[in-house]
Amino acid sequence: MPTHSTPTRREALGTAALGAAAALTGIALAPTPTAAATATARPTAPSSPTLALTHATLLTTPNSRRVPDQTLLLTHGSITASGPSSQLKPPPHAQVIDLTGKYVMPGLTESHIHTSGDDALTPPLFPLTGVTSVREMWGLPLHHAWRQKIADNTLLGPRFVIASPIVDGPPSIWANDTGLPVIEVADAKSARAAVRRVRREGADFVKVYSRLSPDAYYAIADESERQGLPFAGHCPDTLPMSRAATSGQRSIEHLHAMLLATSSREREIRAALAKVRIDPSEPSSLSRYGSWFRQVHPLEWTAVRSYDKGRARRLFDTLAERGTYVTPTLTIHHALERTADLPASSPDWKYLPAWTVASWPYIWDAMIGSRTPEDTARIRRIYEHRLDLVAEMHRAGVRLVAGTDTGTGYAVPGFSLHEELRLLAEAGLPAPAVLASATTHPARLLRLPPARPADLVILNTNPLTDIRHTRDIHAVVNAGRYLGPADRTRLLAAVEKAAAESTPPEGGTLPTATPGCACNAPH
């Protein structure tokens, strides 16, 4: 790891100091000159290529051990040394920032998003809320363009890991009204062709979906390995979850399939699921998904009532042994299944266009329809069961990653990840495990490169005592660039202004389909 000229005593810190830096970030770091900026507003330029963060309490991963009164040295954005502030003195040319009373932890990763919009809105919100890496689950040319602008230092944004378009079996739940690409594959030949296509198009992984046949799914798994391309996404309706794990699927999204897989009546429920039909001539995705949701809800209720703890433990052991990650997306489950708890307003919503926020009740009505009191009580119990499953998976050693399904509704980019962390804590995960779900676990899942500029969040209060403290952000280091309190205030104000000035797309003020993946409906 490159170093700069320092006194001999600092060199004596050696491996232990750099080891602390690696533990802090979850991966090794090396200097790469870079700077983040937005197209509409830029962070304050650094006064020196060396930044010294002094007298901070480090929260190292994976055990979130507190290391008080530490100094981090960043050169050209990368951590080059760390150690006790009493021993590690900043070089004379360094920009020194005193972080007495502050807590420094790795930048957060949001592992399930669906984003759209213009440059001034969505990308900056992630780093400004401490989210320095994201996994985009429905890849579009827009996301690749954002990633290039971020690399070119013309846009403030997170590191993007970008999925392929959804690869699904026919007829896909997604109709053509979204304007988003869906690749339908009916057999092994077309499935292999789809994998080769998305690799040529630059996808980081193949996004598999709910209606894939076994032949198509296994062909995707095999061709993905041949092409050196991971695959992740939904567990198809036709496939036991354990087979998805043994086939090499990197992550399984949401908890719908998990209910079926842990039921003693799984075979019976899957037979009923195979009879669920959607009308391929129906032009509206909302109508399709609403119909799907209402048909599958009774099957989920059957699964909850027939939960088999032994079966669940065997499955969880398989997921843990195979290294299969699970993204619970409790945020979207909560929004759809605890609708009485949906807020009428939120301070976070000012960072989105008013017409976007106004569309959410319309989308929810179309997705959910009317529920009887009995339906509401059952769905509430289903949600509680999902929380229990999350706790059981954690205890069994399944690697959980934090993702929200942001882009579907009632979730604001960046801000919603902090809500997901709160819900994971509510499910029973201890604070270190919650933090790992947004730091070390996704770093391994997404195979983030070992040599990259630093991503850090600097908090005013300790998240180990209350996970909600991850919202109490003092500053952020995003791709090596320090965003202090004044930077964050100014840049958030720029996003708020852009949101207020945003006009709805041509054709109306309300969308005709969910703008995200609607992965939220049972499958």
Which secondary-structure class do the elements indicate?
alpha/beta
Main sheet characteristics? 8 strands, mixed
Cα-based radius of gyration, to the nearest Å: 23 Å
The low-pLDDT segments are: 1-41, 509-523
Using the alpha-carbon principal axes, give the shape. Answer: globular
Count the strands? 16
Number of helices: 18
Oligomer: single chain
N- to C-terminal distance: 47 Å
**What percent of residues adopt helix (DSSP H or I)?**
25-40%
Strand coverage percent: 15-25%
- What is the mean pLDDT? 87
Features:
523 residues, six-stranded parallel beta sheet, 18 helices, 16 strands, 39% helix, disordered N terminus, disordered C terminus
Written description of the protein model:
By secondary structure, the protein is an alpha/beta fold. 39% of the residues lie in helices and 17% in strands. It has helices spanning 8-11, 14-25, 122-128, 141-151, 188-200, 214-227, 241-246, 256-261, 266-274, 285-305, 309-322, 330-337, 354-368, 373-395, 415-426, 431-436, 440-445, 485-501, and strands at 50-60, 65-75, 78-84, 95-98, 103-106, 108-113, 131-136, 159-168, 182-184, 205-208, 231-233, 251-253, 325-327, 456-459, 473-478, 481-483. The strands form three sheets. Strands 1, 2, 3, 4, 5, 14, 15 and 16 form an eight-stranded mixed beta sheet that branches.
